[in-house]
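Box 3.1 A note on notation
Throughout this textbook, protein chains are presented in two layers. The first layer is the amino acid sequence; the second is a token string describing backbone geometry. Keep the layers aligned when reading.
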Amino acid sequence: MRALFVNLRRLATSTDREVSRYADLVRLARWFDGSDNENAAALWASAFGLYPCRHLAFVADTDGESPPPTSSWWRGAVADVPVMLRASGERKAAGQTARREDFSAVKAQRLRERAVAEAERTAALEELRHQLGPFADRTLSDSARVQLLELHARALSAAGGPLHGPARATAALPDGGRVSLVVTPAPGMVTSLRSPSGNLVLHDLQLELT
């Protein structure tokens, strides 16, 4: 019905046709207006070809049989109407299925970046493993300083409050070894760490790598 009314409106309002059907539509509307119910139904069927509702036989689906032509729609099985057709009258879904994107190149790049980061972290921990003992005045690379500060932060977090005694944080190495940083309160002590990015000075703390 929706498509029918759209076509009728297009025929009635079109101005680019050599022959207009507007007068024919007005005449047909006048016939409907002057007809009784029975004649109006016959006129409707003759003009638009809309006959009484009945099923048409077709090849049955694999999971059932087609209803006979004499079956009433009131008693027949419910038809599976697509959502798009039921909601808006459109017989096809709008838009297209999105093309499957290939993320293999991005995934490979991220894996390479992760491998580089892990290699840098391992090298930094190896450097710390060769710096065992208490700190007073040490020189480290930037990556080793980052790993040392990470251990320092984890040790203070493990203390769960003001530091009243030794606190420890441990990092594992790929070969199964471990590097631990012990942070101990030491009033009056100054610990200095030098690196290419600058100097770090810690007051009242003793750092020791084990």
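The longest strand covers residues 178-195. The radius of gyration is 42 Å.
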